[in-house]
Design brief:
With 184 residues, this protein is an alpha+beta fold. It has helices at 6-15, 20-27, 31-39, 46-60, 66-69, 83-93, 112-122, 124-127, 149-156, 176-183; strands spanning 97-102, 105-111, 142-143, 161-166, 169-175. Helices cover 48% and strands 15% of the residues.
């Protein structure tokens, strides 16, 4: 492990626009400890130095936010749309579920499995006449645009998609596929 000099730690902190107090609070050490490390008057524990280096690395590479990963426009249906409309949008956009949005606000979702269940329950010919609201499922969770990607990852472990809301309106959507694309 490369161990930076006190001068290098100070220079990096200043370059990132951080105060000693900022680094200290994020690393869980006192501001006076950061000052003494930067001045070279103390030989810190390796664990303390690692915490400070980690804080500087994180500050250098800011966290990814939902707004940076989301895609827009969001393809959606309304509760009064027909199941046929939902199927057409899913096919055209190559998606397996759609949010159900009313006046810009998410109120549920419709998925391929819900549509298949509809066909099984009422038959293919009668399914055409059904509305999305008849077989709507719970809405996708929502997050603000500035939420960290870690929160989105956690939500996607339990849900198919996460909607990004700004000003009370849906602005974007994040799916598991979007996260996988980050790796590439």
């Amino acid at each position: 492990m490369y161990i930076p000099t006190p001068a290098e730690i100070r220079a990096k902190r200043i370059m990132l626009g951080l105060r000693q107090a900022d680094v200290a609070s994020r690393a869980g050490v006192s501001q006076s400890m950061v000052a003494r490390i930067e001045s070279g008057t103390v030989d810190p524990r390796v664990s303390t130095l690692k915490k400070i280096i980690q804080v500087l690395k994180v500050a250098e590479h800011p966290a990814i936010t939902a707004s940076q990963v989301m895609h827009a426009p969001v393809h959606a249906v309304t509760p009064d749309d027909s199941i046929t409309t939902a199927v057409e949008i899913m096919g055209r956009e190559d998606v397996s579920q759609l949010p159900v949005i009313l006046d810009g606000v998410p109120i549920g979702c419709i998925s391929e499995s819900a549509i298949v269940n509809t066909v099984e329950q009422v038959g293919l010919t009668r399914a055409h006449a059904r509305k999305v609201k008849d077989f709507m499922e719970s809405s996708f969770p929502t997050v603000p645009p500035d939420v960290g990607i870690e929160t989105v990852v956690h939500l996607l472990q339990q849900h198919h998609a996460v909607l990004v809301l700004d000003g009370g309106k849906v602005r974007g959507v994040i799916t598991k596929h979007d996260l996988i694309a980050l790796i590439a």
